[in-house]
Amino acid sequence: MERLEGITPGRWVRRWLSNRSWFQKSLLVGAILTLLWMSFVPSELERRVVFDTVVLIVGPLALGVTHGRHIGWNINRIAIRNGVLLSLFVLPFYLIGSTLPSIRTYYPMWQTTLAPAEFLPHAVQLFILALAAETYYRGLLCVGVKEIGFKAVFISPIVYMIHHASKPPIEFLLSGPTDVLFGAVDYHSNSILPSVLAHGAGLVLLDYLVLRDPLFDPTPALRYLEWLPVAL
């Protein structure tokens, strides 16, 4: 095998990686995983659940285990309390959002009905997707690197917004601030449990609400607001 200054390419890569800090490895693996996700993510829900589990859950967890690091998979009293509070805080946004025409047109992303035998498995799969997303964004790229300080909260918002580019305009606009909020709560909780609870419950609630008649008629101001990102 061809050698580079007496070192095989494979050994050179391993040596280079061994000299990287945990923070650098987290960013490198994070970049690789997001490229894989953006390139190969399937559209069908069942395949998406499997794909996200492998790429966004197993990938980050494997890196953490091999380096003796936890990436937010931690349950404690503060995390449980903050999970309840965060879920209550975002609840009005889901309730209002479910009445907006652009949201009701886009969701549910995967076909389902309110029949329990169909909706309950659908809800479980949505929670798995939320767990996968939070393991990657708030786990690997936030709680997992909290040693750098509170600035860890601001690592993933841009990537998070890019991954929401195809969503309704109002959701795209709010995705960045939402990422910062969830990251800040998880950072102080030393756990991704708060964002998993808020995100998972929110996804299930949103699909449930858009399959029913709107709770109320959104005001004209809200109708205009949902298209503000397009105008900007």
Shape: globular
Order of helices and strands: HHHHHHHHHHH
Mean pLDDT: 89
Percent of residues in beta strands = under 5%
Q: Gyration radius, to the nearest Å?
A: 20 Å
Major sheet attributes: none
Number of helices: 11
Describe this structure in words.
The chain has 232 residues and is mainly α. The protein has one domain (9-231). It is globular. It has eleven helices and no strands. It has helices at residues 9-18, 22-40, 45-66, 77-97, 101-106, 116-140, 157-162, 169-189, 193-210, 220-225, 228-231. The chain starts with 8 loop residues before the first helix and ends with a helix.
Please outline the helices and strands.
Layout: H1 9-18, H2 22-40, H3 45-66, H4 77-97, H5 101-106, H6 116-140, H7 157-162, H8 169-189, H9 193-210, H10 220-225, H11 228-231
Helix pairs in contact: 2-3, 3-6, 4-8, 4-9, 6-9
Summarize the structure in short:
By secondary structure, the chain is mainly alpha-helical.
